[in-house]
Amino acid sequence: MELKGIHHVSALTAKADENYHFYTNVLGLRLVKKSVSQEDSSVYHLFYGDRKGSPGTELTFIEYPLAPQNDEGTNSISAISLRVPNDQALVYWKQRFEKLKIAHEEIKNRAGRSTLAFKDFEGQRLILVSDEKNEGVQGGIPWEKSSIPKEYGIIGLGPVKLTVRDAELTAGLLTDVMGFRKKGQYSSESGSQPDILVFETGDGGTGAEIHLEKRTDLPLERPGRGSVHHVAFRVETEDELHEWTNRINVAKIENTGIIDRFYFHSLYFREPNGILFEISNDGPGFEVDEHINHLGETLSLPPFLEPKREQIEAKLKPLNTKAE
């Protein structure tokens, strides 16, 4: 009954084609699955990750073409971190961002690690974090056909930052129900707000942390393109997922029950400030319906949507993701 770390993070985009270009050609991630939202099969759901989309490396995007621009604020997932091997990798990325004219900050220390904050073309808040001092959850293996040199490549998801109005309630859920441990804290970049609290689970380290920020000087976030939909935490087996369902029920937290996502199974619930949490197991993974050499090249549908393939494809704007 211990969460192993971050499983995946899912965000919103309005432009699947530009999203695909940015996260593969600019950031060098591999598209490991091109599918559709299981709640709305008229829109794409794109999954990026390491060479095989290992749990802990998956960054996913659901496309809503008419989504307004995200209006940043509280009760939100306010930053996604992506792990790189070492401090020198951040120097490479800073030079790359300058060359490509991608909005970014200077390299700076956050929670004892070197980091580089930047934004994608829709204002998605991202932070590269160095694994040079990491002693916890191990990262993934970059795709060998990535446009980024392996020694600088992104190796997984790092700490996820939550910005909330009431940090005590969220902290209570993390520690009392979900088994996180308080690890430390660091100064808020706002200058006038409380320190950001660091919580870890499992083996700890870069891939197993939540950073909790209390802000009373911001409005509630109004999500749109450039916002984050949810964060998922990792367990290995479906049996563990059933145990977590029981624990969440005992805590009297409203939840979805276990949902079959085909590539893994998931349990959804909201923390006290309304942020959507998910717990997901590891399998069967993205190779269940595609060979590892051809992940993400064609539209993959879960079995319950396969009979509707013709109608689904007719509604989708073509998106060429075949490797050249």
TrEMBL record:
Q: Spell out the PROSITE patterns in the cross-references.
A: VOC
Entry GO MF terms: dioxygenase activity
Ranges where the VOC domain occurs: 5-131, 156-282
Q: What is the lineage of its organism?
A: Bacteria, Bacillati, Bacillota, Bacilli, Bacillales
Q: Give the top-rank taxon of the lineage listed in the UniProt record for this protein.
A: Bacteria
Coiled coil (residue ranges)? none
Name assigned to this protein: Ring-cleaving dioxygenase
For this UniProt record, the keywords arranged alphabetically read as follows: Dioxygenase, Oxidoreductase
